[in-house]
Design goal:
Protein name: Tol-pal system-associated acyl-CoA thioesterase
InterPro entries: 4-hydroxybenzoyl-CoA_TE, HotDog_dom_sf, Tol-Pal_acyl-CoA_thioesterase, YbgC/YbaW
CATH architecture: Roll
CATH topology: Thiol Ester Dehydrase, Chain A
Family: Belongs to the 4-hydroxybenzoyl-CoA thioesterase family.
Organism: Cypionkella sinensis
Order of helices and strands: EHHEEEEH
CATH class: Alpha Beta
Strand order of the largest sheet: 1-3-4-5-2
Helix content: 10-25%
CATH superfamily: Hotdog Thioesterase
Structural class: alpha+beta
Shape: elongated
Number of domains: 1
Pfam families: 4HBT_2
Largest sheet: 5 strands, antiparallel
């Protein structure tokens, strides 16, 4: 399980003073990027050297409670499964341990022309460290 802390800025909120719904997707994207980085995967090098990227294929999201300006939040990323070309994650946005947003996210590995590609063995080995 990976944790990434962030704060809600004024620019993240809507006219009601709560986090605009689409910004939760940005928050979990940051959490995923830091999760992969902390596992030792250099996504810039993966694209430059092997022409591979990870892309979101599916998101199933539940908005449970609103976050507000200046809230301290934590994005929790849990790896559920890894296959040859796919990664399945559960991500939560928490405030003081309370779940505000929960998403099931499916990532796929894509080649340069957007076709599905297998996750390279060395990268897959690093990702497998995150499985429970």
């Amino acid at each position: 399980m990976h944790r990434f802390d962030l704060r809600v800025y004024y620019e993240d909120t809507d006219l009601a003073g709560i986090v605009y719904y689409a910004n939760y997707l940005k928050f979990i994207e940051r959490g995923r990027s830091e999760w992969v980085r902390d596992l030792g995967v250099d996504q810039v090098a993966l694209k430059a050297v092997q022409g591979l990227v990870f892309a979101v294929r599916r998101v199933e999201a539940d908005y449970l409670r609103p976050a507000k300006f200046d809230d301290a939040l934590t994005v929790v990323t849990e790896c559920l499964a890894i296959t040859g070309a796919r990664i399945e994650l559960r991500q939560q946005v928490l405030r003081a341990g309370e779940a505000l947003f929960v998403a099931l996210v499916t990532l796929v590995c894509l080649g340069g022309s957007g076709q599905p590609a297998r996750i390279p063995a060395d990268i897959r080995a690093k990702l497998l460290q995150a499985l429970p």
